[in-house]
Amino acid sequence: MEKIRxxxxxxxxxNQYQKIxxxxxxxxxxxxxxxxxxxxxxxxxxxxxLSLLAGLDRPESGTILVEGENLLEMDRDAYRRKQISVVYQxxxxxxxxxxxENVMYPMELQxxxxxxxxxxxxxxxxxxxxxEKIFHQYPKMMSGGEQQRVAIARAMAAQGRILLADExxxxxxxxxxxxxxxxxxxxxxERDYLVIVVTHNPEVARQADVCLKMKDGRMV
Length: 220
Ligand SMILES: Nc1ncnc2c1ncn2[C@@H]1O[C@H](COP(=O)(O)OP(=O)(O)OP(=O)(O)O)[C@@H](O)[C@H]1O
Ligand SMILES: [Mg+2]
Prior knowledge:
Layout: E1 2-14, E2 19-31, E3 35-40, H1 46-53, E4 61-66, E5 69-70, H2 76-82, E6 84-88, H3 99-109, H4 114-127, H5 132-135, H6 144-157, E7 162-166, H7 174-191, E8 194-198, H8 202-207, E9 210-215, E10 218-219
Parallel strand pairs: 3-8, 3-9, 6-7, 7-8
Antiparallel strand pairs: 1-2, 1-4, 4-5, 9-10
């Protein structure tokens, strides 16, 4: 099913000196149950495009429809809480929360009780292959691969079924990279997530169901 439709979307950054057109008239659509890769040179607009999809920035023109509803007309905080999770290269875990608490966080935002959140968080962590050993560890004591798994578990704990990832394997060795890609693909194929991965890595792109490329702000 079509989950996200992007119609003629543009975005530019404006500073004192110049206007940078980071995304130019992009149109495309994304279906759930698939993993998409977005590749392209550095500066081609990939991260900007992802932040538009995440509702973190507003398109300057054009529309983004999520399940047929205009993103701009939705309550954006609700959209972000409910629909979309973003995983970044640098993991972005909360340093003062342990693994379980990191995963509990989005559920607590949704008003789920601490007890239930803890239970689900532990389930999500097990699902990404992390055992009890890691549950009470803080991010700085975890390896990069472990941190990225916690970040994915946290994304799974958020209720949404759209997962955006910006260079999720950028800091990982090839074995961990493979595991993370398998995990993301599994979410798409077995649990019907829409997964969109921005990557410089040809191996990650090869694993995707659909590979898109950006060049100078355009989808080519
Ligand atoms: N906050 C910002 N202010 C001004 N210009 C920006 C900002 N963020 C990005 N840009 C510019 O917008 C363009 C697209 O940047 P973007 O980060 O989307 O590229 P990218 O494809 O993700 O690159 P990379 O592969 O290096 O992460 C670049 O020219 C960049 O310099
Ligand atoms: Mg980027």
